[in-house]
Amino acid sequence: LMVACAFYHSGLFVVILATALWGGDLFFRKLLMAGCRYPHTANLEILTDTVVEISFPKKKGFDYNPGQYVYLAIPAVSLFEWHPFSISSSPHQDIVTIHVRKRGNWTKAFYKLAEKRDKVKILMEGPYGALS
Predict the structure, then answer these.
(1) Is 125 within 8 Å of 71 (Cβ atoms)?
(2) Contact 109, 39 (CB under 8 A)
């Protein structure tokens, strides 16, 4: 509806410009930053029948505080689905851990993937949510 209204009042240029800006932002943030800035491979370990631990070495420049979260995409599950997960390790540890609980469709598919593999490619954006 918004696209139709923008087209009606402003012409095709505004619709094309808005689509290009949104697509450029998506490409830059999700694929370039998440794909190049942080680790590409993470270890998976099933801890219980509902929890999987994701772990990877902490790279220089990946600084976070307690309570912060990251957005993760697991291309083996879905390239375009990003989900927020709290970082569960201490900022002083050399290994970053994230615990994923099996609840919805995406996390159930991720759990099944963890049953088959112990390493997986990840895309990550963040950390976000600094305490003030």
Answers:
(1) yes
(2) no
* The two structure tokens encoding residue 44: 């998976």
Using DSSP's 3-state secondary structure scheme, residue 118 falls into coil
Please give the backbone phi and psi of residue 115, each rounded to the nearest 5 degrees, phi first: -70, -25
Q: Give pTM, 2 decimals.
A: 0.76
Other CB atoms within 10 A of residue 8 CB:
9
SS3 per-residue string spanning 57-81: ECCCCCCCCCCCEEEEECCCCCCCC
Average pLDDT over the chain reads 85
Model confidence pLDDT, tens digit, residues 50-72:
999 999 999 888 889 999 999 99
Crossing angle for the helix pair 2-10 and 12-26, to the nearest 10 degrees: 130
**Contact yes or no for 100/81 (Cβ under 8 A):** no
* Gap between the Cα atoms of 92 and 95, Å rounded: 9
Predicted confidence (pLDDT) at residue 48 exceeds the cutoff of 70: yes
- The per-residue pLDDT for 25 is 78
Structure tokens at 111: 């759990």
**Coil/strand/helix, residue 42:** strand
Q: What is the DSSP letter of 98?
A: E
